[in-house]
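ugh ok so i messed up the first submission bc i forgot one of the chains. this is the corrected input, ALL of the components this time, i swear. 574 residues overall. if the numbers dont match what u have on ur side tell me asap before i send this to the collaborators (the ones from the other lab, u know who)
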Amino acid sequence: MTLREPPPAADPMLPADEFAGKVVLVTGGGSGVGLAMARGFALCGARIAIASRNEETLAEGAAELRGLGAEVFTAQCDVRQRNQVTEMFTRIEEAAGPVDFLLNNAGSNFPALAENLNVNAWRAITQIALDGTFFCSQEFHARRCRVGRAGAIVNNLASYAWTGFPGDAHSAAAKAGTLNLTLSLATEWARDQIRVNSIVVGTYPHSRVPNNDPREREGRRGLTVPAGRALRTQELGWAAAFLCSRFGGYITGLNLVVDGGDWLRRDLLKPPFIPPRERKDLWFGQ
Amino acid sequence: MALKEPFAADHPFMAADTFKDDVVIITGGGTGLGKAMACAFARMGAGIVIASRNADHRASGIAAVEELGGKAIGFAVDIRDPDQISAMFDEAERLLGPVTVLVNNAAGRFMAPAEDISPNGWRAVTQIVLDGTFFCSKEFHRRRLAAGGAGAILNIGATFAWTGGPGSAHSAAAKAGVINLTQTLGVEWAVDQVRVNCLAPGYFPHEDTAAHMKGDWSGEDKRAGQMPAGRVGRLQELGWSAAFLCSPFASYITGHTLVVDGANWLRHRASSAPDFVPVREWARTPRD
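and heres the new structure output, hopefully the right one now
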């Protein structure tokens, strides 16, 4: 058996007006995990702003969210550029009103052996995940303080933040930094009523995962998790919405793991270790 | 400023019928955090079993649930004894139906330097916290498996499980065991659709705090100022997190420990001032 399937994706879990009048900004919100989390806010009445470098992705994500009845705003932004982050917030807030929640989801990733990572590749991945999270959080905090309003941040993480991940040194180090940043900012900003948490996203095959075969969504990948199945889209939305809602109002500095037990040890013995450089498929260990 | 105050306990959270088909056993459910969690589940339709050794505590928990229009029964049980646990499940099933949620909340603790803890004192705490959690979980899982139904277990941890707890060596070690057990059982029982998670509460003051534990606490106002959050936790905030973890909306969360403490366990400053005071200077019970 697998873990039970969740309730239908249209179920908002929280009262349907929990986020009425609120604005959530999701970086990288046009696809994948960001879009999944945005859906959870849309179901509870939030206005949704999504930011991405890619206009096509923005258009696709916006269309999907509008299909849920949400008011959607989009902005192109490279979160590595501090001035672009400021401009993006300005454009969004002019159109949608002050941003109440920030989901730092923008990220990029690809399999690579550490010895083959060139300087640009290292910087691209770590600057989007870690610098981008910091810049957006800093801008969000400044604007919340200016209007004297509470807010909440959720950072998108992976369990390799604390296990390491051969073939992914760049992203793993950046996510470790983001996890630590979650803890520091939670303590620094609690008295400003800005809560800062993170969500570890388990196996969630979607079109932006490198080498992901969508046909395997219900197949091999799910079977490798103790849960026996992959994450469902609505399970991400509920977790993010709960953390930002007033019902999670005493939760800050938390790293919520939504992974079906995947990061935990499951055997005394493991399959034979294949050194990363001998693998045909670097991430999946073959 | 402090973190915002929450909604009142009766504010609508998840749908009011979310737990209408569930029966929830809460060990130590007659007082404090256990009673608050019992009320949270009762508000969303669950039948409640208040497990406690103390008749007054059971009556208090039942009364709190009934006041909300909920249904509750009490059962006298020492969770260090698996036979008593089995009898409790029999009685719960007979009166309310199959138990689908288990909250392992019962605990005991007293402050003492490690060198002052007697074998009996050590065993009393670790056997209630760790053994009791394991025995109740095992019985719950056995019956869920036999019934072919899904279930959720919620353990209660503490942040000193991973920082150590001077003055609470017994409880800190037992809670570390509970968090580890949460992880192992989360992996072992996922295939049986039994999810196992843990809550690590910060400071949630309540009127039932035992007299022997009140001594080292300085009251809400002083404690609030020591915390990043600027305020203590409110019981309904613990109830909402407990309900979320056991609800079908947390269907992919297992083996996890959720901390609800307003960032209180995290490092607050570069130096660890105020001055370090050895445990035996503040945790030792004065003897005549």
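quick check: The mean pLDDT of chain A is 94. that seems consistent at least. The helical segments of chain A are 32-42, 55-66, 82-96, 119-147, 160-163, 169-189, 220-223, 233-244.
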